[in-house]
Amino acid sequence: MKFTHRGPAPARRNDFQTLKSLLPYVWQFKWRVITAIACLVAAKVASVVLPLYLKDIVDQLSVPATVLVLPVAALLGYGFARLATSVFGELRDALFARVTQGSIRRIAAQLFKHLFALSLRFHMQRQTGGLSRDIERGTKGIGFLLNFMVFNILPTLLEISMVAAILLWRYDWPFAVVTLGTIGAYILFTLLVTEKRMVYRRSMNDLDSKANSKAIDALLNYETVKYFGNEGYELDRYDRNLGKWVDSAVKNQVSLNFLNVGQGAIITIGVTVLLWLSADGVVKGDMSVGDVVLVSAYLTQLYAPLNFLGFVYREIKHALADMERMFALMEQGQEVADAPDARNLKTSNASIEFEHVDFGYEGNRQILFDVSLTIPAGNTLAVVGSSGAGKSTLSRLLFRFYDVTAGTIRINGKDIRGLTQASLRQHIGIVPQDTVLFNDSILYNIAYGNPLASQDEIVQAARAASIHDFIMGLPDGYQTQVGERGLKLSGGEKQRVAIARTLLKNPPIIILDEATSALDTRTERLIQDELNQIAKERTTLIIAHRLSTIVDADEILVLDHGRVLERGTHRELLAQRGRYAQMWALQQAGDDTD
To answer: Are 475 and 370 in a shared domain?
Structure first.
């Protein structure tokens, strides 16, 4: 079986790639899109017909009073065309609302799903504040892009085409040439200047994300900031990034002012030339007053949205710049992915085997060297060693947050790379050393181990973790809010919540990563007895610092700088008088001193 993973996503995308990424989500609503475009065309046809009826009304009312007749047909046609413009426009908006919001919802959900599919390495390197800002800007950009592409760009281009055709059909070619020439100059100028301005927008986005990342990071580490009295330092760091953002924002505004002046000059020249041509035609007798009204109405009707088109195009470019970062996230390759023929793990008794495992988080820094171990189903293996020896790395590899560099990890004789990640992790429960809780109630955090569990099952798990009495002593009981990352609870209380939710998950494999390190001696002993009872029925990997908690383990492994130094039972290791015996003697001496 061959196991591969995709590489990282490209750093930059072009606008075509961004639009191509968006199209499949929009096209899921294809019938709404087609109907909305049909309404758009109908609205614009009615809009372009309006000046023709207005010309007929003016011409019929310009005759001598003696032959004046009310132009009923022209008036009714004008009223119908104006009503049709409004009705079809509103119908288009109503139909397309579901397309816009539905596309945003599906993209956001897909992105959220994809982020959870990315490896632990990606999430350890990301900056939460910048990532959240990229997603926020990207989803807003989708709504802006879709609305203005369909409601402004397409209608304006359609209207320009129809107006140019009518002018060419009814009048001399200079009218169409001046109209199209003005539009062409306007669009070309807008494209050139806007492209040059995009460097400022991208710079603003980068600096905004960095400033937000630093602010969120400082707030998440509020206590650390206060411990060291570094509020001024964090403010200065944040303010320096905002200062750079202001510089880019000012350059962006100045370039916008230049763009607006140029666009205004081009439109003014075009309008003046067309009015001069129509006025000259009336003087020569080639055109009527109604023709002047017709040309003037088209100019007003055409150049107003064209002027707005410049703003829309600029904002669409901004939206594309915002969206490119979000879609780049969606193209971020999965380092750890299920094999095409991956199978579901289904077992209530699991044996674990590490065979000649090598691993390093970085290519030039290896953590584990030729590690081999076996945990028979229902047995307990404890791993001890100094900090940085690679103990917690074993649990991350077993969860398959990373794939091994060399060697194999098996459960019931099956390579875990041939199992689906979801089924693998469903069979493993962990009580980590550093417990992080959701900013929700205690009930929610315990129930997270099994969201379908009943209230009685949750209470039973809490009792087993010796936290039920504490919870019931709180004013809000199980509905007590734990705060951001569980800051309202002590380290020991958070640890007991983590133990409760793992018990509620009820997996055949349990990993205890310094599970009782934050507890006082009395509570530790209470929980340790319960954990020992649970471990008898499950395959258990204990990563321990306090050796007194693992004396009953079936086997103990001593890791040193990623290598297996010693292995055996507690008694056997003490008899060897090696590293384990030294660690035991030091901890016993420390306990006696206490």
So the answer is: no
